[in-house]
Amino acid sequence: MTVASERATSAPAAQKVDVRLEDVTKQFDDVVAVDRLSVGVESGSFFALLGPSGCGKTTTLRMIGGFEQPTEGRIYLGDREVSRLPAYKRDVNTVFQSYALFPHLSVFENVAFGLRRRAVRGETLRGRVEEMLRIVGLGGMGKRKPRQLSGGQQQRVALARALVNKPQVLLLDEPLGALDLKLRKQMQLELKAIQHDVGITFIHVTHDQEEAMTMADQIAVMNQGRIEQLGTPTELYETPATAYVASFLGASNLIAGTVSGANTVRLHHGPEVKVRPAAIAGRTGEVAVGIRPEKIDLGGGQENTLEGTIFEQAYIGVATQYLVDTDCGRLTVYRQNASPGLNGAAPGQRLTLSWSPESTFVVDSMEGSE
Length: 370
Known about the structure:
The strands form four sheets. The protein has a six-stranded mixed β-sheet with strand order 7-8-9-4-10-11, with helices on both faces. Helix 2 packs across helix 3 and helix 3 packs across helix 4. The protein is an alpha+beta fold. It has helices at 57-65, 107-117, 122-135, 151-163, 181-198, 209-215, 233-238, 243-248, 277-280; strands at residues 2-3, 17-28, 31-42, 46-50, 72-77, 80-81, 92-96, 169-173, 201-206, 218-223, 226-231, 253-259, 264-267, 272-274, 286-291, 297-298, 304-315, 319-326, 329-336, 350-355, 360-363.
């Protein structure tokens, strides 16, 4: 991982980087879609660009692929600058949400298409196509036409067609967006396994936080054309750098407060709570304290406590969700349904919420939490 955004650190010099963007800006008329973005993607990694519509993630992917040229800045594939090169002169392939298969060709010929254009023939071609079909779980289906396949199988064909040419980088533009929920979850795990198998660098664009966290080694959370934070799924979830990241990547309870010590924050309209000293990170004055819903206990026992009244509860399968009104605002609590009858709390009940200082993060303000 390397990144040159304000909040990130660079990777060790020895680490090989397949894609590097330096101060890349893309402007459409008076709209800045990507704003001085600098980031590097490790060779052989699964990298995700995550964010809502309009954040600049797809434009960034299109610039890496050569479908758009940056207004300013430089793009490198390995050590080669490709900022002004057209797509066909870059060692990248792209998989789109629409699959873009040739309906009149068999699965085998769809996958072989790029190899034939490169003058690969005979047993070499057949061997590479059949091996790639095996990798994506379509062994023995080479004679079928795309219309005879399910949506998930068609997506695998598109993936095989892109990978069979052994590109330096594979770009994935919302590749699972057209699939139903159950199949999408299945394909997330399969796609990650395929990436590990082939060892090619994947750069994946998605607005789905769960999808990014399931598949990616590194995630860049984008907001208004910039990288808000870059890190592993664990880093982003457990220690978000901003309220925007905390709210976009999973549910968060954010409570306004004021730093009162090296490891304490006085909540507005509430008690003083303890946090990890590293969470303060030199901050002073107004901040926001964050706690993930599943890290709050219904009842005492943890060091930080807050009194509240249950406003509403909802059974959501793996957990029961509680909305609890406190003097600091309404908090969301998840309690795992580990055994029958565990969740006896009901609307109107007064109780104590508690959580550990180790489960508490701190961000600069509430801004961006909506």
